[in-house]
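call fold target=Pectinesterase
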Amino acid sequence: MSASVVTVAQDGTGDYRMVQEAIDFAVPLCNTRRIVIRVTPGIYKQPVYVPKTKNLITLAGLRPEDTVLTWNNTATKIEHHQTSRVIGTGTFGCGSVIVEGEDFIAENITFENSSPEGSGQAVAIRVTADRCAFYNCRFLGWQDTLYLHYGKQYLKDCYIEGSVDFIFGNSTALLEHCHIHCKSGGFITAQSRKSSQETTGYVFLRCVITGNGGTSYAYLGRPWGPFGRVVFAYTYMDACIKLVGWNNWDKVENERTACFYEYRCFGPGSCVSKRVTWARELVDEEAEQFLMHGFIDPDPARPWLAQRMALRIPHSA
């Protein structure tokens, strides 16, 4: 079944003027057909909510630099067209964009929380949905920029920036060929796996990590949950990364359970010999499970990621 396509344009030349209008009116409840929402260039200042009842949505822009979804909520100040009973409160409810509908795709879109530095938790996007994919997107903010809360997600060719815990949550996510930028001293990841039985974790594969000048001021991550699991593989790390690499969140007991791994990374911030003793370099056999799409798409009988890639639609189509 072919996808249905609608257009959002602020100047009134499309089917809708705002992204939320397209979600509310163009996507039927419990839809079984993919809806492509083409978003024309512009800065769209409005919180966006994709509810659990609306799956199979694609947001497609032309260039992420030109198509920006932005809002300025913080954990202590939430203004949203939905009630807090629907979207939640605190960090959970403050996302500029909140995605709870499964099988969501975004391409060539910027997701921004425009709150200034020092505003505390200020999420650009929260993803609480399974089988979601992001291609050539940007995620802009300071603290808690990208909340990969639940489900399985794939991010490719994306740019993510922030300072404190700016990629966090307890989903199973593969970030491939992404650019991670540390705007100031802090922590890149805060993964919250709570037990060794959970299959969640974040894998950064062939990524690039940069910083705003200076040396040794950012950690690769800290465990928000005691079994937090993060892998950096074949990733360039510039001098912004602290040589110790990882932080225990001021809890020595986390050192016994956190799973923080690196594999064949390089660059001035990748000095394995200086890392904390409770993080380690994987050997080839251990790394294999993290280097393939099977980490987030483990069922060969029901693959989802290849289908997402096939669904990428040129904006001019």
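return ok
The domain at 1-128 is CATH 2.160.20.10 (Pectate Lyase C-like). The chain has a mean pLDDT of 95.
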